[in-house]
Design goal:
It is a single chain. The chain is mainly α. Among the domains are: 36 residues; 137 residues; 123 residues, Serine Threonine Protein Phosphatase 5, Tetratricopeptide repeat, CATH 1.25.40.20. The radius of gyration is 32 Å and the shape is extended.
């Protein structure tokens, strides 16, 4: 749909005029106001800004900077906290500048902002008894931001409100960092003693500041003489603050109590250079290197260079390479998880083409093996379905028949990625399928691939699989996966080409057993179709359960009846006993007994089994 921007601007202009006329209480006031209405939307915004009282102008500019640069909408109370932050040295909060009522931000910015109910809410993390919704403060219209960051404000009635977007990010980074510097407590949140409890109840801006301060810093790209840089360096080098920031990143909306932020919080010491590289704080990385930080410092995902490549921070990568960072896998790590992927593999996985080009130019081994799973960069690009990256790696000498990784070679990875163009390209270059773990290939690769049924048909018609046993393996695997995923057309196609309907995986599951345990309405369709094509209704592999066991366990009497009509052994015994024993045990489980609908379903199964002469036979004794 094409939007007429002139019409939208005119509509916004009318809204602003109506807002201006709302304050007129007498006919004479209305007539005078109509005579002096601004002619354009720019002039309208200029007048609104000019009418902001001088004592509120500094706060208004700060609020508008925040709304222009925010990465997601802020709550009214969060913005009210920002107004009170002291961006310079001294106390973090200027209590004399704190608003009595957070709603006063609406008064300060007039009709330039609006409040809407938020889809988010903050749990009461102290008592865990209730939650309260947020009220998002937003610019009233996209044209407000467009006007404020344009050069049209300079010659208007209120030039002080001309806002540079980069400087707005710099200001927001400063507010976030200054705010976070107050969280220097040991073991923040553990037990929530009184003083910390009081602090957190008031720290509404903490979650946004913890999550977004690095993004604002990167967008601002401050130089080393700025206060933002100095404060970021102080934050990055303080172990207590870093840990608390990591906790606050995953706090509030997602949880309601403190959760460790992954492996970083599990380490004894969070290396400042690693953390700055993870965040992409270029000037901080430079300063830390100048101060003598070890360029080979390790973190949970390898070296500082590796994590910078993973996040796509090109400037930080350049600095680390110039400082002599190891471009290959660091085998000196004391812990296995610290030696995960090489910088090249991280850059490939993140689809950072320019970084991959840089690393290859610096001599990175395009065929190097990565981590304990022994995967290559080409395998990673193929899994991503990233044809541009595949072309780049192939041009750099990547081997198409590379060493198989955990699940196979690059051709297996291309099948997982589902990009037929890459599959054709590798096949034309002489690639052949080389499976390392067939069962893992089936469980992890084929379900993703089968989501595009046309691709599955193409795959089978490409002569990718040469060995007859391999062809039979893949066809039977596709059939089982198609049944589990509910792909009716693909199941029909696999049966039409003669796929073994009684094949099983390493768990002993046949297509019929998988169909019997489905929770979807397609179960009966698949059961009938498989039985029509010769499925063995009583096939059991080892001490696994039969299809009848699976149907009874699902609590579906129709499936049980269908299987019995087709010759299922009503007294077949598995490791769980007879079918009747299993159904009775299921009906006595608390979650079934407490649900009248589930209880009725399992009773119907039991009645069906008894009508066919079922016996209660306990499971055989364990050896």
């Amino acid at each position: 749909m094409i939007v007429n921007t002139e019409f939208v601007s005119r509509f916004r202009w009318v809204v602003c005029q109506l807002d201006a006329l709302q304050g007129c209480l007498k006919p004479r006031q209305i007539r005078n106001a109509l005579k002096s209405l601004p002619r354009t939307l720019d002039e309208t915004y200029a007048r609104i800004l000019a009418k902001i009282p001088e004592e509120h102008s500094k706060d208004a500019r700060r609020i508008l900077q925040c709304l222009i640069s925010a990465f997601y909408p802020l709550d009214v109370k969060e913005v009210a906290e920002i107004v009170a932050i002291n961006p310079s040295e001294g106390p973090i909060f200027d209590l004399d500048n704190k608003l009595y009522d957070p709603q006063d931000v609406l008064t300060i910015c007039s009709s330039l902002v609006s409040v809407i109910p938020s889809t988010r809410s903050i749990s009461d993390y102290i008592t865990q008894e209730h939650s309260f919704p947020l009220k998002e403060l937003r610019l009233a219209h996209y044209s407000v931001k467009e006007y404020l960051i344009s050069n049209r404000v300079d010659g208007a009635l209120a030039p002080m409100y001309s806002i540079d977007e980069r400087l707005a990010h710099d200001a927001m980074a400063g507010f976030c960092i200054r705010y976070l510097l107050q969280f220097d407590q040991d073991d923040l949140g553990r037990g929530l003693p009184g003083s910390q409890c009081e602090l957190l109840e008031k720290a509404l801006f903490a979650h946004y500041a913890a999550r977004c301060w690095g993004r604002h810093f990167r967008a601002a790209a401050p130089d080393m003489s700025s206060s933002s840089h100095r404060n970021a360096l102080a934050l990055t080098t303080d172990q207590r603050i870093i840990r608390n920031v990591l906790k606050l990143q995953k706090y509030w909306w997602e949880f309601g109590n403190f959760q460790d932020e992954g492996a970083l919080l599990a380490t004894d010491t969070i290396n400042p250079l690693y953390y700055a590289s993870l965040q992409g704080l270029t000037s901080v990385v430079s300063t830390l290197l100048d101060l003598g930080e070890d360029v080979h410092s390790l973190g949970p995902r390898g070296t500082a260079l590796a994590v910078a490549c993973s996040s796509g921070h090109a400037d930080a990568v350049q600095l680390l390479l110039q400082a002599g960072a190891n471009i290959e896998l660091d085998t000196s790590a004391k812990r296995e998880w610290q030696s995960n992927y090489t910088p090249l593999k991280y850059a490939v996985r993140g689809k950072h083409v320019n970084l991959v080009k840089l690393l290859l130019a610096e001599g990175a081994d395009v065929n190097g093996l990565h981590n304990r799973n022994m995967t290559t960069s080409l395998q990673g690009a193929c899994i991503n379905g990233d044809e541009e990256m595949v072309d780049l790696l192939l041009s750099a000498g990547a081997r198409v028949n590379d060493e198989p990784g955990y699940m196979g070679n690059s051709f297996c990875s291309a099948i997982c990625g589902g990009n037929m163009s890459i599959i054709h390209k590798l096949q034309n270059l002489g690639a052949r399928l080389d499976l390392r773990q067939k069962d893992d290939f089936v469980s992890s690769y084929l379900p993703r691939f089968c989501n595009a049924q046309a691709m599955a048909r193409d795959l089978l018609s490409m002569n990718v699989f040469q060995d007859p046993q391999e062809i039979a393996f893949v066809q039977s695997s596709l059939l089982r996966v198609a049944v589990r995923e509910g792909f009716q057309d693909l199941v029909s196609m696999m049966l039409h080409i003669g796929t073994d309907v009684n094949s099983h995986n390493h768990f002993g599951d046949t297509p019929l057993i998988i169909a019997a345990e489905l929770t979807t309405s397609g179960s009966l369709f698949f059961l009938r179709l498989l039985l029509q094509h010769g499925a063995d209704v009583n096939k059991v592999v080892g001490d696994t359960s039969s299809a009848l066991h699976s149907a009874a366990e699902s609590g579906n009497a129709d499936r049980v009846e269908l299987l019995l009509e087709n010759g299922a052994n009503v007294n077949c015994v598995s490791g769980e006993g007879s079918v009747l024993t299993l159904a009775t045990e299921m009906s006595n489980r608390p979650r079934v007994k407490s649900d009248i609908y589930k209880r009725a379903r399992y009773q119907a199964v039991i009645d069906t089994l008894l009508a066919h002469g079922a016996q209660d036979i306990p499971p055989p004794p364990q050896p």
